[in-house]
Specification:
The protein is mostly helical and 401 residues long. 46% of the residues lie in helices and 6% in strands. Strands 1-2-3 form a three-stranded antiparallel sheet, with helices on both faces. The protein has a three-stranded antiparallel sheet with strand order 4-5-6. It is globular and about 65 Å long. It starts with a helix and ends with a helix.
């Protein structure tokens, strides 16, 4: 009922002058209803995406491009019988994989959608949903530009056109690199699996990797102390989360998705257990760890653990649905935080600050990696269970002193 009411509201709000858009609070949104024959691939019947512009002219251009890409994706869906296009718009679980069979295909090569299906089936196991969404989104971008072709039919011209499209879309150099990385990975994996004599035209495409990239700045110590004092003064669940991150260096999603049972205070060394949950995955394998609770992080954990909110979550505000609302947490907390920190600093800057604080007390790099859940280099780093909690506790205690 809620979904139908929302769809009716969007239809009413949809602008007449710009097809497939509506305006909310001055910003334009793109919206399309999912075709009935493809509805079984989706968990919702309408796609909605903010165009991030208040300009009617820009909104019209972006909406036309988005509509064209969706039509191409849906055409590919109908031909290839997969649920991959639109993965970044509420796509449900993929259908049973149907892989390329060279004996039944006159071209002797898989197309990009078949290569993507194979890649996700074999490489996507036990990976976060973001892995599938990012690979699918990148391939869908290329399909919208150059079509869904056999791998050997893609040319350098397609690669250059793809680069120009990404740059014109306003992506930073690092985002362009990331899109090419996913595309090259899908392409190379299929070429290797099927032993194809095909050259990857997306290798070696030049672009400015530093374009639009701004280095995240750590939060100065005096600002951290000021923020922590404000957290204790306001003393609510949002500030508990800020304080928790300020003296642990946790990622925002790691903290927001905690269960109360992940917080262990009745120990000689109090700590928080960072582990994978169905509602919140982890970025890397090394992200699973025990992080000692010291200083304001210990205060925040105690407040969150003993809060009588009737929820198993430490921060129930951000766990009202099947997934932790890390983006909502980021938007709300950054809006508050920017009043108390230098320009350019965000919630993620606490991680940068923690690394600097560990460096300042000459903490060994492998111990710092374990505390922050950073991926460690070298085969030897993967052996054993890591440092005991009392060792990491001593270094964190020194770092925050």
């Amino acid at each position: 009922r809620r979904s139908s009411c929302r769809n009716r509201l969007l239809t009413i709000m949809q602008t007449n002058s710009i097809p497939y858009t509506f305006n909310r609070h001055g910003y334009y949104y793109f919206t399309r209803r999912v075709p009935k024959d493809l509805a079984h691939h989706y968990s919702r019947l309408r796609i909605v995406e903010c165009l991030r512009t208040t300009s009617a002219r820009q909104a019209k251009l972006q909406a036309q491009q988005a509509a064209a890409k969706l039509e191409a994706y849906w055409a590919s869906l109908r031909v290839a019988h997969t649920s991959l296009p639109g993965a970044d718009y509420f796509v449900t679980q993929p259908s049973t994989a149907v892989f390329f069979d060279a004996n039944k295909d006159s071209t002797g090569q898989p197309d990009l959608l078949q290569a993507l299906e194979l890649y996700l089936h074999l490489k996507g196991k036990n990976r976060p949903k973001s892995f599938e969404a990012a690979a699918s989104r990148t391939c869908n971008y290329l399909i919208g530009i150059a079509g869904n072709k056999c791998l050997g039919d893609y040319t350098r011209a397609d690669a250059l056109k793809f680069r120009e499209w990404l740059v014109n879309r306003g992506l930073t150099g690092s985002s362009v690199t990331r899109n090419f990385s996913y595309l090259k990975a899908v392409f190379n994996f299929a070429v290797s699996e099927y032993a194809l004599d095909v050259r990857n035209p997306f290798i070696g495409v030049y672009h400015d990797r530093q374009a639009g990239v701004t280095k995240r700045q750590p939060i100065p110590m005096q600002n951290i102390k000021r923020v922590q004092a404000k957290c204790r003064q306001i003393d609510d669940d949002m500030r508990w989360l800020v304080a928790l991150l300020s003296d642990t260096g946790l990622r925002l999603a790691e903290g927001a998705g905690l269960l109360k049972t992940d917080i262990h205070l009745d120990c000689e060394v109090p700590f928080v257990r960072i582990q994978k949950h169905p509602w919140r995955g982890l970025k890397t394998r090394s992200s699973e760890r025990n992080v000692p609770l010291v200083g304001q992080a210990l205060w925040a954990a105690e407040r969150a653990l003993h809060a009588s909110c009737g929820s198993a979550f430490a921060f129930a505000r951000y766990n009202q649905t099947d997934t932790t609302a890390a983006n909502s947490a980021s938007a709300a907390l950054n809006k508050w935080l920017k009043q108390h920190v230098p320009t350019g600093c965000t919630m993620h800057s606490f991680r940068h600050s923690m690394r600097d604080r560990l460096r300042a007390v000459q903490c060994p790099a492998d111990i710092a990696d374990q505390i922050g859940g950073w991926a460690a280099d070298g085969v030897g780093q993967g052996y054993g269970s890591g440092y005991p909690i009392d060792v990491t506790y001593d270094w964190v205690r020194q770092a925050i002193a």
